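#random but structural
TW: two for the price of one
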Amino acid sequence: MSDLNVSYGLGARHEDHELAEERCWALLGASGVGRFGFVHEGRVAVYPVGYIVLHGSIFFRTSREGSIAKSLPQAGVSIQTDSTQPSVQAGWSVLISGEAEVVEDSEELTRLHGHMENEPWAGGIRDLFVRLVPQHVSGRQVYLAK
């Protein structure tokens, strides 16, 4: 047996708490990069995406021929983003879940093109806009207790 005294329990030096919805949206809007989780051909898939937050929804671009496009529309999808600071054992995570759909309205597409500052990181043509309509917003923050 180890001489290390862990009677306080593993993780007891850490504190965590749920983030308010307003704080979740602020963190989500500041990030711009996250992971899109969805089901494709009966399996969970998670892809990195660059996104924008606009008018209470999340938008990103993808390929018209890819697995995301082939899986839409779909309920129960999520976008997750986070930030960690391993040196101080701290971080946060935000998860937005809802329905994803293809944006088809030409006026909305024009507005979206005007707001997209960065090109998608994935190769190929990424001209299909996806909207995630949020139904559930959650977030957590963890840090070392003082």
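TW: number two ↓
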Amino acid sequence: MRRRRTLTAVVAALGIALAGLTSGTAQARETATDDATALAPNFKAPFACGEKWTYSHHSAEVRRALDFVRSDGGTTAGSAVTASAAGTATRHSQPSGAGNYIVIDHGGGWQTYYFHLQAFSVPSGAQVAQGQQIGTTGSTGNSSGAHQHYEQLLNGVGQNIHINGAALPYPPVYGQQHLTSDNCGGGGETNFSTWGSGVNVRADAFLNSPVVGTIGGPTRVFVECQKEGDTVNAEGYTNHWWSKLRDQGGFISNIYIDDPAAKLPGVPIC
């Protein structure tokens, strides 16, 4: 009888120890997750400063992605896709799935994914700043319409998306939740919007300089500096000042910068 009691006591003690171990493991996992979240970059919305987009998550979606479309009256297709945190951008293509997409490595195991891009705005391997345009919104790959597919991953595992440190909900349809971007960039450049469509970006501030790109429609841009160049007459305006655009790698006439001043305030001379 004494032996049975001793055995029962040992089993009970073992059970308590195992329960404590399980509880400790769960607590450790929870602490590790909390620590990882605390160490995450301060992610911003992956679209231009001041824009409002609605978002949703559907059950067939990979990992913990959210899909975004504009809800502020702007056109989704062609809208700027911006880096939600600084890092190293890599270009990828998967015609049967993600289409044209960019992965940004933020360090510490953190990455963000941007799928279905209409076009890339940075080369592979580029060091990008938070708020910098990395592409334009499209519908490449397995997509039924223009939208921005966005993910945050830690060590290759999809995470619930946080913007400005706060977790976003996961609505099943568009229109229930909206997000206004405060991803206004930084550095020494000044943030402006362009207007007009089909605006040529030139290698220098002269009309005979090679065209290095085109701005399809209103776009948020970062002006590094401005300089005097050829006089441009367009849309009823005349201006000889040109802006050097950081992300587009060239100059446009200040006529197409949405500001009433011919010479932009607060922007240095090139």
